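W.,

You were right to be curious about this one. When I first looked at the sequence I had no strong expectations either way, so I just let the prediction run and decided to look at it fresh. Below is the sequence, 195 residues in total, followed by the output.
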Amino acid sequence: MNKQELIEYLFLEMEKYNIHITCDDCFPKNAMVNIKRKLMIYNPTKISAFKIAHELSHVINKDICRGSENDTTNPQEVRANRESVLLLWEIFEANGGSYEYFNVFVDITESPFELAESIIKKEYLEMNEAITEIFEDELKVSINKQEMHDYIVDYISYFDVIEAINVYQFLDRYHLSHNFFNMAEKEFQLLLGTN
């Protein structure tokens, strides 16, 4: 999706909220929305996808009283900036974009680089961390079942006669967590036929 297609898409999203959109080459700002009048006016020579998404956030949140365009102390402006970056990122990813192409994202959306980087990097790292944690847990369990079998076979091979097995000693010898006690106990029972 190029810049123009993205802007057109955002205008369509704005129209879903019954906002009438007017273009004016002499308008001194990029864009501005009046929620009470259901009107958005923009300057086509200054407009960006980021600015439209920012105004769309104000519409979605029904922000009637707002500060100036660059008022970073106003919670509504801060929220609109954050939500616009997240919305644009969602669209970017839906169209095949990824964190590897972050510079392309900034170029297409004209989002402020530092703002977008801080928001997307945090979201990306949190999501990546959560996914990695989920897959690592699943991977560790499946690997540990096979490894557990191999460790137990190795452990048993050191004995000529087995009278009793101390599962905790076995786990300690192979530097395994005591959380694997039940898994090890079941595997010993299967291998030794004491089940």
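Here's what jumped out at me. The mean pLDDT is 86. And, maybe more interesting for your project: Residues 5 and 79 are 25 Å apart (CA to CA).

Coffee later to discuss?

I.
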